[in-house]
Amino acid sequence: MTTTSGSTPEMRHHLDDPGTDQPGGLVGEVARMSAEERAEHEAEVADVVAPDRDIEVEVGETLLEMRDVTLSFGGLVALDSVSFSIRRGEILGLIGPNGAGKTTCFNAMTGVYRPSSGDVLLEGRPLGRLKKSQITRRGIARTFQNIRLFGEMTALENVVVGTDARHRTGVLGALLRLPRHHREEREGVERAMALLEFVGIADRAADKAKNLPYGYQRRLEIARALATEPKLLCLDEPAAGFNPAEKEELMGLIREIRDDGYTVLLIDHDMKLVMGVTDRLVVLEFGKKIADGRPAEVREDPSVIAAYLGVPDDDVA
Ligand SMILES: Nc1ncnc2c1ncn2[C@@H]1O[C@H](COP(=O)(O)OP(=O)(O)OP(=O)(O)O)[C@@H](O)[C@H]1O
Asked: Are the beta carbons of 174 and 237 closer than 8 angstroms?
């Protein structure tokens, strides 16, 4: 995957002076563009963010499969023979009451925990005993329920760290200052900048992550995950703590990510939001899968209604 072919003069300018929000900075330049110029600029950014998006992907083929996965913590069975597939190009929602096993599913897919039995397969190959970093390289990236950023690093640096997962030169290449290392470093910064723009926080690229507003931090986590060029992006409650307008904006971003060719797995408690953005839903309760289907079907499913008994109708609507 090449990542720099679409880098634009605007991006390069911004790299020289990241974070500037003043007239002359990228944000100001974009604001002054005509509608036509802006559309062209956005297409150029999209080229950098998702360079492969025009390559025809077999939307609908299985990307990840949870095959009969059981995961126990001592006597507690957090996942009980759970099987479902995530199809390429879809937004799949994973829902269920508190403690149902949603985060444990993410942890099983990303190598935090190993299933006690069963398999997680990515593109038909079991993840087996791969380490977290190896799974990231195979193509699964995630964000966390509790934001985990490098607080003392800038927003841009946080995303550049994500691009490192794709670098082919290792520590030795860096020590020897190989030309390829320099090129990868430069490409990483350009791609990181494009991703910050894509998620809407390029104006704060030079700020330390810990100083960013909460909503920016959530978007920064998504940019960092995208930097690894994942085949599957797992978002664990990305809208937690957002007001309705912020949630709506975030859903727009998640749709854009999918439209750019990524596959998204989404956990969220807000039923309205999940129903509104997902193509399909898997419902867990007490570690077992109780439903799997289109949002409109799942919301009518008696076992799902029973699992959510007590949730006001408004929240399920
Ligand atoms: N590391 C752990 N050690 C012991 N028990 C755990 C561990 N992680 C999760 N559990 C238990 O496994 C069950 C499933 O937890 P999990 O966090 O996956 O649920 P969840 O559906 O993500 O819940 P929530 O919506 O509250 O985040 C819960 O009973 C939880 O207490």
From this structure: no
- Rounded-to-integer distance, Cα 137 and Cα 236, Å: 19
For 178, which DSSP code? -
Residues forming a β-bridge with 122: 64, 125
Question: Per DSSP, which regions of 194-262 are E strands?
Answer: 232-236
Of the pLDDT bands very low, low, confident and very high (cuts 50, 70, 90), residue 129 is confident
pLDDT by residue (tens digit) across 259-301? Answer: 988 999 999 888 888 888 999 999 999 999 999 999 999 988 8
Give the C-alpha separation, 125 to 166, whole Å. 20
ipTM, two decimals: 0.95
Torsion angle, alpha carbons of 218, 223, 225, 229, to 10? 160
The pTM assigned to this predicted structure is 0.78
Domains of the chain: 58-316 (3.40.50.300)
Distance CA 273, CA 55 (A): 30
Q: Is the pLDDT of residue 19 over 50?
A: no
Q: Can you list the positions of beta strands (E) in the chain?
A: 62-73, 76-87, 91-95, 117-122, 125-126, 140-142, 232-236, 263-267, 280-285, 288-293
CB 98 less than 6 A from any atom of ligand 1: yes
Q: Are strands 91-95 and 280-285 parallel, antiparallel or unpaired?
A: parallel
Residue from 79, 104, 283, 286 to probe ligand 1 pocket by mutation (most atoms less than 8 Å from CB) = 104
Pocket flag, ligand 1, residue 214 (CB < 6 Å): no
CA gap 32, 59 in Å, rounded? 37
Three-state DSSP class for residue 281: strand
Alpha carbons 149 and 217: distance in angstroms, whole number: 8
Q: Within 13 Å and on the Cβ side, how many CA atoms surround 258?
A: 24
pLDDT in tens, 52-81: 544 444 567 899 999 999 999 988 999 999
